[in-house]
């Protein structure tokens, strides 16, 4: 598809222009004699960028243009790789070392000169074949510069999909229209949903319903789409509203020489005192909608007119009307989808059973995901095949979407949305094809990977994370991505791709040589110069992986890790290493190999308890932005970490307990330490835990951590001094302030962009505690803070470990999330100052429940409260009238039988979920919570308590769901 090739090439060219400008300005480029070549590459790239932009708006895009765009794309990739190597060569060595390494200098210089020659050839090819016409200086008044509309829905499909599943949505839209109100200004109702969901079908049924026909004598159905001619649109509206004779008469008056203004004035003048109903179908931009409302519809009409807008973009809906006037169309219910698929496949379910095709029919039905257009197109293909061939069609669906003409309608629905994306969002969307089917993608993981890949641009006044999140939200808004988990603030935290959308995205990625799926929809032979690899099975040796930029693993490989180490040595341009989906353990030896991947920007490794330390070579990963290691035995961050000034995220999940050296493993500990000299040279039958290599590695890892962490049982890291050099750091989890020096603690307070911080401690002096408080108070950008201790103190008169928390006088003002997990005694007085606090978790703090409620009940933005008190303490929790104005989620854990929970009338008006886990207390007043939707009750409890909750749930007017665990 030429459009895709052009947009991908244009996106890559922009990145290369920026890097070339930086490389040309470096002194080393002059010393090795390539500065002029780099400037030439930069200027040529800018010219190509302009040509690509012109090509994108050309309506006729032939195969030759596509080939040329693909050549520009590959040339951009190679140029970026070369410039990245140049940057690594400059940054990781002194100027003298760079000059002495003649071999590296010569290799880079040759690569740059070869690139210049290739640029010259590609530019000449464009001129030779006259591929791209330059853009005109000024656009015409009549035509909007939107992309070509390839929408192609047949009336046959509309009629069929309208037969099922639209009765309830139709009634809801008619309710929103309120057609009986025949006065007041025109109101706009929006129908929003992804392409192929049936927005047009549903709206057509409303448009043709008796309620609309009887109440509105003037009706019009206008297809806006991605491109429209303004004069033709206005003429169409006059024809539908006022009749063909009115349009003919007006044209005769102006002798066919009409301007947009003439048509607009005529239409709005004649409609200003009339009640009308208009559907604006398939709106793609708010600018187009605003122009229609101003130029084609009277602004002073007060006759109760109605406008329906259908769009794929929720952002457009939010800008043109109020939230209550928006109908988000949902996929078909399972029974309706099943009925439609059977009808389109010309089968009954008895036929399916007779053919023993129930399983594959269910798989196909699930893949269609309730999308009417998908059901119709796939069902039409099923009707032409025997049931025994359905499994083959299912397995080869991405390929069929490329070549099977019967499936082109579905492909066009998705590619239309993709084509309309801005250039910067297209690689972000295609990148999501890396994740497996039905995979729930975490927003933060996706955004951090986008940033590492260079997909996220800069924006004045915003961090790269904030810009990346805006990209994510825009894809959600455009209905290309489905939200799967939303927090209590309405922010999407996780998402999925619809199965059919993902298959089409894989198809596009394959065309663009963008992502190679090992073990899914493909053989094991990758195409040449593939850039991104997602593995659901083992990689094979013998292929060229030197151009690969990201490797994502979603399997538990059979082959040993030494083979994976051989793979890693070939990934010399690797930027993203994400092994989160793998279940094997990363060893210290593999870690030593990973830190030699100098282009690495994103590292996420799971199950890493064999890793005992970070090698000093990690200081050479100057471009590293995200460092996430889970389950490690690393207790100390090396000093070299302070060299990585692009680091944005440091997150370590360190094992908090010792399996071999804990108090419950005394015998194993004594035997193991006695035999330590033998560990590296022999197997020990007396100690089963070290008889196997994996247990030996665990034993040595725990011993290493024990030695260098001062026997700490926490999961925090000792942070080196100089940590304040990491000025881009946004997340740091977790810092063991007990072992961290005072200078390093002072440095924490200088991390101006820090948004998320985790602190752990065991015991420390008042002096150090004061230093910690002073640093925390300086973190004015902090949004999330976790304070976790391992003192296990229970005596109120022993506050040496926890009194420092009370010394905070001016907490971070923007704090939204707070976790305190340690005995702190009395309530923290500074918590009531957190007016932006949204979520708080208090675990084993020793704070009285009454003090918790008194301190938190007036917080204006608190939405989530988690409270787990110390056992055997008497608590009485009374949620008073007008308290907790925005609380939505309440979680109470292990309240003793001596406690009472009472909800007074007028308290927590927005509370939707209440959870009582292992609570033996009396719970009263649930009927006083007007917004309650769900009550969760679990753990050991008296039957009388269960009956009490059941009775209140049954009596509640909302009939909330009761979940018993």
Furnish the topology, listing elements before pairings:
Elements: H1 2-24, H2 27-31, H3 35-56, H4 63-91, H5 95-100, H6 102-129, H7 155-161, H8 167-177, E1 187-192, H9 199-207, H10 210-215, E2 218-223, H11 230-242, H12 244-253, H13 260-271, E3 276-283, H14 286-295, E4 306-311, H15 314-320, E5 326-328, H16 334-344, H17 349-354, H18 358-368, H19 372-382, H20 390-395, H21 397-403, H22 408-419, H23 426-431, E6 441-442, H24 443-453, H25 464-477, E7 482-486, E8 492-496, H26 499-511, E9 515-518, E10 532-535, E11 550-553, H27 561-570, E12 576-578, H28 588-594, E13 602-605, E14 626-632, E15 649-654, H29 666-674, H30 693-708, E16 731-736, H31 742-748, E17 756-761, H32 766-778, E18 784-789, H33 803-806, E19 817-821, E20 839-843, H34 849-856, E21 864-868, E22 876-879, E23 889-893, E24 900-903, E25 913-917, E26 922-924, E27 934-938, H35 943-955, E28 961-964
Parallel strand pairs: 1-4, 1-5, 2-3, 3-4, 9-10, 10-11, 11-12, 12-13, 13-14, 14-15, 15-16, 16-17, 17-18, 18-19, 19-20, 20-21, 21-23, 22-24, 23-25, 24-26, 25-27, 27-28
Antiparallel strand pairs: 6-8, 7-8
Helix pairs in contact: 1-3, 1-4, 3-4, 3-6, 4-6, 8-9, 11-12, 11-13, 16-19, 21-26, 24-25, 31-32
